Amino acid sequence: MDVMGDKGTLFETGRFVQPSSREDTDTPDETGEIADEAAEELRQRLAAEAGDVEAMSVLGAMLLRRGDLDGAESHLRAATAAGDRAAANNLGVLLHQRGYAEEAAGWWRIAAVAGSAAAAHALGRHHRERGDEPAAEYWLRQSAEQGHTLGAYALADLLEHRGDAAAEQWMRVAAERGHREAAYRLARALDRKVAPDAGGDNGVLAPAEAEQWYRQAAARGHRRAALHLGTILEGRGELKEAGRWYLTSAKDGEARAACALGFLLRDAGDTENAAVWWLRAAQDGDGNAANALGALHAERGETQTAERWYRAAMDAGDVNGAYNLGLLCAEQGRTPQAEQWYRQAAYAGHREAANALAILLLRGGDEKGAEPWFSKAAEAGSVDAAFNLGILHAGRGDEKAALGWYERAAAAGHTEAALQVGMARLREGDEQEAERHLRCAAGGGSAEAAYRLAALLDARRPPEPAHELGEPVHRRSECEEWYERAATQGHRRAQVRVGMLAAARGDVVEAARWYREAAEAGSRNGAFNLGLLLAREGSEPEAAVWWTRAADAGHGRAALRLALVYARRGELAEGQRWADRAVSLGPASVAERAERLRDALRQELSA
Known about the structure:
single chain, mainly alpha, disordered N terminus
């Protein structure tokens, strides 16, 4: 049965404390304690038999605590009859334990009216259990205002249930008096003020006061407070202390703490011990831990074990289990099964599963079936789905709708979407907006965005100032930094541009390095420029090799250069062939020169 208060206040005496739990075998110290209690009981019994009312009350409380209800009742009734309010309160507890709730309430009322805070608390609880909230509030307030900790907490709980703002005040009173659940709930309330929609669990750091109350509750053994404290500390990067609180909470049976501890250990590289804690949490029904175990086994190639844990996550009510099963089946090429699991997770509201299902359908040629799932995922907040909808509309030629979805994804930080918006704004001539989006995309790691941003800044760059003696002065600009960032990410046009900038400042070695890198990656401009550089350095045979590669890839100027090389060597037929190639490739200025060279070579051959 639910006792109305803790034993210390219930019995209203400082002389008796709740004995600590003992092992089956008594130690010498424990034997001494038992002997002391027996001696105290005998002393109180003798005093009670001599008519001492306080002794009757204390003896009744001792017997009640021990579970001897029959022995306790006579002493408590005798003390109550003599006007002892503590005895009246404890008689109420005894009767409540026996199932006589109304009679118990009568004795509590007598004790409460006589000034017993514990009895007022018990009477308030009694009325609340029967749905009489006005009476419950009256007696709980009486108890709380007399300094009764449990009364303050119960009053706060009642007021919070009603949505009364005064709940926080009384929760704070109970917390300040050491009530650990009150400290925890006060911390949660303070958290909700910071993030009302997420209850303080959305990654927003708790305010300092909330952390203080979490810490107080955790120090008193509140396992959920220890979990939240660990989360706060982990968010601040204080991983060692976070781990200690997770461990404390996990050892007390908090599955979420065991799961969090597992992730902390995994991030530290200790997957073996991480698996131990995930297993413990998963066995206690934590779906997140089951998913983590599934992912761990999937990484090891143990797909059957991974599937078993993903199913366990589903059984625990974690929809990620179905999504992960879909991913596992997709990786194995089991497309029908993957679709089945994606659908199950998507119907349960898993946005990434909806996006994955849409991609699966789109790859299978079912664009009509894919679009609603993309829309559902995007509306639920999937950034990838919003981007994919942009691609879908762009493929249909609906640029306006595509841009709308790209902008939505870009606003949520999607790099490629930001690039698409930037390019669209460039086409519209809105350089300011284009630059803003290109900077976002380039900062997110897009090489194409870095190149286009560099080109935009390059076009605005004023001419280099001249040195007093007429020599150009080179100052490293922002656009060069972006070109180099794109080049180092393998962007071929950026590599060519960086090579050109290096050549312009006379750094032939650096220029050749970038041209060669671009050319080897398939850039015809890189190959052509490398050829020019080699020819200037006197290595025309090697230059011809790179020009040949560029011309074969469709570079008209490279073909014209080859025609000139072969003409100078006297290989007129080969020169004429490359001149023909240059004419067909263009551009117009190259074609015009190549045509004149071709005609001259033709005349020479026919002479």
